[in-house]
Amino acid sequence: MVTLAKTELFGLFAAETAEAMKPLGLEPYRGKQIVEWLYKHGVREFDAMTNLSKDQRVKLALRFTIMKLSQKAAQHSVDGRTSKFLIAFPDDMAVETVLMRQPYGNSVCISTQVGCAMGCSFCASTLGGLARNLTGGEILSQVLYINELLKQEDHKVDSIVIMGSGEPLANYDNVLRFIRLIHEPYCLGLSYRSITLSTSGLVPEINKLAEEAIPITLSISLHAPNNELRTRLMPINKRYPIEQVLAAGNRYAEITGRRVTYEYTLIAGINDQPVHARELAALLKGRLANVNLIPINPVPERGLLRPAQTDIVRFEQLLKSEHLNVTLRREMGTDIDAACGQLRHKVLSK
Ligand code: SAH
To answer: What is the span of the domain harbouring residue 222?
Structure first.
């Protein structure tokens, strides 16, 4: 007897699902019914799909699989607002997903790769290199996992930040599939505006993203006001130096009409001095841009420290005095290893 490899359904669009069902003789409208079970209702067994016949459910189970996740670890902040989960896929590869209960709604921070290849000197995600890309379905499954948790409290996911482990634009097609899927009415129907993608600055992919006609918010990790310092912190700067990154940011803002956010992680004695603030202000002045200052979450393996509060405030004030739009990230969950990759790294190192 020949056994066919089963096809994973999670991560398919309704039309693709309908197409995959064709050989089983299911009517085209069944595609939408099935994805609604999977994405809207959180069903993970064919047997629970009660608008299909028993015979159809048995046939489906023979040919298709539905991805199931397992939770390897969870940490909750003392104030109860931030929860971090280490979530494993069927091949036992695990990523971090974080739920942040903000005053304006529930935000989920998701990972797009297992590990990361970018090698930024302050980040925990990249310590073990890149293991693999996540599929669109695996990226989506993190959001739906949290959404099912929230349903139990009569809540839902309101916004998404693609700021967990991995470089999303290095996994472009899978990330785009995820963004389009989560927007579908048969999925969560999230508006593109409630999705933020953060990149270390892959210029060709930023340019490509600008042409997709999906007005998500783009955040670019800058972290330094000159090439010499940025190259020390972020090796990718050798390939795409600051001038190219800023030009791509400008272009994104022009095409989409959306302000770009530049993230700047403040590290004591490295990039947090008045000279850096002035250089940064000169660089960003007159652009359709926001600056998001993030005091570093110290990663023990990295030996980098958080600046004194007075230095953080002085940096912020200097940028404001140059009329830049500045926000200081409200830190959530620093008591639970919320810096990207810290929980996974800790569990793996054991
Ligand atoms: N690869 C993407 C997404 C990564 S994480 C990117 O580089 O943008 C989202 C943000 O957190 C990035 O700006 C990243 O540089 C920053 N970050 C990483 N490690 C950090 C740490 N230990 N403390 C503060 N910010 C950190």
So the answer is: 71-349
Q: What is the pTM of this model?
A: 0.95
How far, in Å, from the CA of 341 to the mean position of ligand 1? 10
Of 39, 65, 91, which residue sits at a domain end? 65
Write the DSSP string, 268-293: TTTT-SHHHHHHHHHHHTTSSEEEEE
Q: Is 257 helix (H, G, I), strand (E, B) or coil?
A: coil
CATH number at residue 179: 3.20.20.70
Determine the atom of ligand 1 nearest the C-alpha atom of 164: 5
Contacts 24+ apart (CB under 8 A), 38-44: 38/9, 38/10, 38/66, 39/140, 39/144, 39/181, 39/184, 39/186, 39/187, 39/188, 40/186, 40/187, 40/188, 42/144, 42/147, 42/148, 42/151, 44/68
pLDDT at position 5 is 86
Tell me how far the alpha carbon of residue 86 lies from the centroid of ligand 1, in angstroms: 18
Tokens representing 287? 């652009």
Between the alpha carbon of residue 98 and those of residues 90, 108, 284, 340, the distances in Å are 20, 6, 30, 10
Q: Which of 36, 96, 263, 316 is catalytic?
A: 96
- Report the CATH number that the domain containing residue 31 is assigned in CATH: 1.10.150.530
For residue 251, report the distance from its CA to the centre of ligand 1, in Å. Answer: 23
Residue 323 contacts residue 286 (beta carbons within 8 Å): no
Residue whose Cα lies nearest atom 18 of ligand 1: it is 123
Tell me, yes or no, whether 20 and 83 share the same domain.
no
Compute mean pLDDT per 10 residues along the chain, 350 residues long, and list them: 81 97 94 97 96 96 96 93 95 96 95 97 92 98 97 96 97 98 98 97 98 96 98 98 98 94 96 98 93 90 90 97 91 58 66
